[in-house]
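Field reference: sequence -> structure
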Amino acid sequence: MIKQVKIYVTGFKNTLAARMAYRFDIFLSIIIALLFEITIPFITFLIYRTGAGFPGWNFHEVMLIQAVFLLCKGISFIFFTGIVW
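Structure field:
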Protein backbone atom coordinates (compact mmCIF):
# COMPACT_ATOMS: atom_id res chain seq x y z
CA MET A 1 0.00 0.00 0.00
CA ILE A 2 2.82 2.42 0.83
CA LYS A 3 4.41 1.74 -2.56
CA GLN A 4 1.21 2.70 -4.39
CA VAL A 5 0.93 5.93 -2.40
CA LYS A 6 4.53 6.81 -3.22
CA ILE A 7 3.87 6.13 -6.91
CA TYR A 8 0.78 8.33 -6.78
CA VAL A 9 2.65 11.18 -5.06
CA THR A 10 5.48 10.95 -7.58
CA GLY A 11 3.04 11.05 -10.48
CA PHE A 12 1.22 14.01 -8.97
CA LYS A 13 4.50 15.90 -8.50
CA ASN A 14 5.57 15.17 -12.08
CA THR A 15 2.23 16.31 -13.47
CA LEU A 16 2.32 19.51 -11.43
CA ALA A 17 5.94 20.21 -12.42
CA ALA A 18 5.12 19.69 -16.09
CA ARG A 19 2.20 22.13 -15.86
CA MET A 20 4.20 24.71 -13.93
CA ALA A 21 7.13 24.58 -16.37
CA TYR A 22 5.17 26.88 -18.65
CA ARG A 23 3.58 29.56 -16.49
CA PHE A 24 1.28 30.78 -19.23
CA ASP A 25 -0.08 27.26 -19.64
CA ILE A 26 -1.06 26.92 -16.00
CA PHE A 27 -2.68 30.37 -15.85
CA LEU A 28 -4.54 29.76 -19.09
CA SER A 29 -5.80 26.38 -17.91
CA ILE A 30 -7.00 27.93 -14.63
CA ILE A 31 -8.89 30.67 -16.48
CA ILE A 32 -10.46 28.18 -18.91
CA ALA A 33 -11.46 25.86 -16.06
CA LEU A 34 -13.09 28.72 -14.16
CA LEU A 35 -14.99 29.89 -17.23
CA PHE A 36 -16.11 26.37 -18.03
CA GLU A 37 -17.28 25.61 -14.49
CA ILE A 38 -19.19 28.90 -14.11
CA THR A 39 -21.37 28.36 -17.20
CA ILE A 40 -23.95 26.02 -15.61
CA PRO A 41 -24.56 28.18 -12.50
CA PHE A 42 -24.77 31.24 -14.77
CA ILE A 43 -27.38 29.55 -16.97
CA THR A 44 -29.35 28.66 -13.82
CA PHE A 45 -29.13 32.27 -12.69
CA LEU A 46 -30.46 33.44 -16.07
CA ILE A 47 -33.34 30.94 -15.92
CA TYR A 48 -34.45 32.15 -12.49
CA ARG A 49 -33.89 35.81 -13.36
CA THR A 50 -36.34 35.59 -16.25
CA GLY A 51 -39.03 34.26 -13.92
CA ALA A 52 -38.85 30.66 -15.07
CA GLY A 53 -37.60 27.89 -12.85
CA PHE A 54 -37.65 24.24 -12.00
CA PRO A 55 -40.95 23.12 -10.47
CA GLY A 56 -40.68 22.63 -6.72
CA TRP A 57 -37.16 24.11 -6.48
CA ASN A 58 -36.19 27.62 -5.53
CA PHE A 59 -33.01 29.32 -6.71
CA HIS A 60 -30.96 28.64 -3.59
CA GLU A 61 -31.76 24.92 -3.57
CA VAL A 62 -30.71 24.51 -7.19
CA MET A 63 -27.50 26.46 -6.60
CA LEU A 64 -26.74 24.31 -3.53
CA ILE A 65 -27.07 21.12 -5.58
CA GLN A 66 -24.80 22.55 -8.26
CA ALA A 67 -22.27 23.70 -5.66
CA VAL A 68 -22.09 20.25 -4.09
CA PHE A 69 -21.62 18.69 -7.52
CA LEU A 70 -18.84 21.12 -8.45
CA LEU A 71 -17.12 20.56 -5.10
CA CYS A 72 -17.20 16.79 -5.55
CA LYS A 73 -16.00 17.14 -9.13
CA GLY A 74 -13.10 19.34 -8.04
CA ILE A 75 -12.01 16.97 -5.27
CA SER A 76 -12.23 13.95 -7.57
CA PHE A 77 -10.17 15.78 -10.21
CA ILE A 78 -7.37 16.32 -7.71
CA PHE A 79 -7.19 12.68 -6.74
CA PHE A 80 -8.09 10.75 -9.91
CA THR A 81 -7.25 12.76 -13.05
CA GLY A 82 -3.97 13.21 -14.86
CA ILE A 83 -2.28 10.02 -13.72
CA VAL A 84 -1.97 7.01 -15.98
CA TRP A 85 -2.42 3.89 -13.85
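Note: The chain is about 80% helix and 0% strand.
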